[in-house]
Amino acid sequence: MKKIRTRMLAALTLTAALLLTAGCGGASGKNPSPSGASREKTKVTLNEVAHSIFYAPMYVAIEEGYFAEEGIELTLITGFGADKTMTALLSGEADIGFMGPETTVYTYNEGAQDLVVNFAQLTQRAGNFLVAREPMPDFEWSDLTGKTVLGGRKGGMPQMVFEYILKKNNMNPSADLTIDQSIDFGSTAAAFSGGQGDFSIEFEPSATALEQEDAGCVAASLGVDSGYVPYTAFSAKASFIKDNPAVIQSFTNALQKGMDYVSSHNPDEIAKIIAPQFTETDLDTVTAIVTRYHEQETWKTDLIFTQDSYDLLLDILKEAGELTASPPYEELVNTTYATEAAR
Description:
By secondary structure, this protein is of the alpha/beta class. The protein folds into two domains: 14-125 and 229-342, D-Maltodextrin-Binding Protein, domain 2, CATH 3.40.190.10; 128-226, 3-Layer(aba) Sandwich (D-Maltodextrin-Binding Protein, domain 2), CATH 3.40.190. 43% of the residues lie in helices and 15% in strands. The protein contains 17 helices and ten strands. α3 (56-63) crosses α12, α12 (245-264) crosses α17 (336-342) and α13 (267-274) crosses α14 (283-295). The longest helix is centred in the last third of the chain and has 20 residues, at 245-264.
């Protein structure tokens, strides 16, 4: 049964906020401002593609009460795949989706009448890693020649970025190695641990977990080797944005506060804040993963999805053979809210 993770940010009164501030000295002791606490909250359902430390700024915004401060009562649901997140968004089960922006391009090219528009970009690097069975301190991408790699879903950003890196390193993804795309999202680590493949492409915490189990070793970061890529973004149907501009602005403001926190605090501090989101992972592991992402500049300092980033996305789609048409930037990206939040 699909696991659904729900986080509810309840409204806080000014009195409760003052009591908690006075009685709690922990890292997550910040609470909504009096203005945010006193007004009625707007309910917003957010469907995220995966629940990962990769998205730390968003979880900081949740744990620090930034959404509540902006007047939003947030329900967070994990879709476990960009296709599922997009389906939830199109069906109205979610108000906002968080996924790879390539999905909005696919939806546009499939003829959607109510376009899904990206209004905030969170990550600027890929968040996955190539895991080998043994340490490979001098790893080169050519070392994958003749090997089997557990890859991602066809047309998804993890797989396309992997192929993009291979081509940058003069390798043919369909001829020089075998990429196994038959394993469901989230199950590749277990398959690799069970003996399938020579290498595997893994997100955190799976990459670190394989290392801790002595079942694998991180050989390369796809985020480092691919360069800056618009990997994940927040999007909503054009009709929802038109009808709820204040909600989109408040939502983006909360995210920007999370980005500001991550930009101005060290990995130890960030890890302590988001630890309640990952109760199945010990704090030391959360800290190690945050450090890995922090050091490779995974997160932007603002949420503005630029034209250059969008053009790079289309190039990656084209290289992967997934681009049937190039939608105009202005049709699928709205920077109004991110620009305002950045001020």
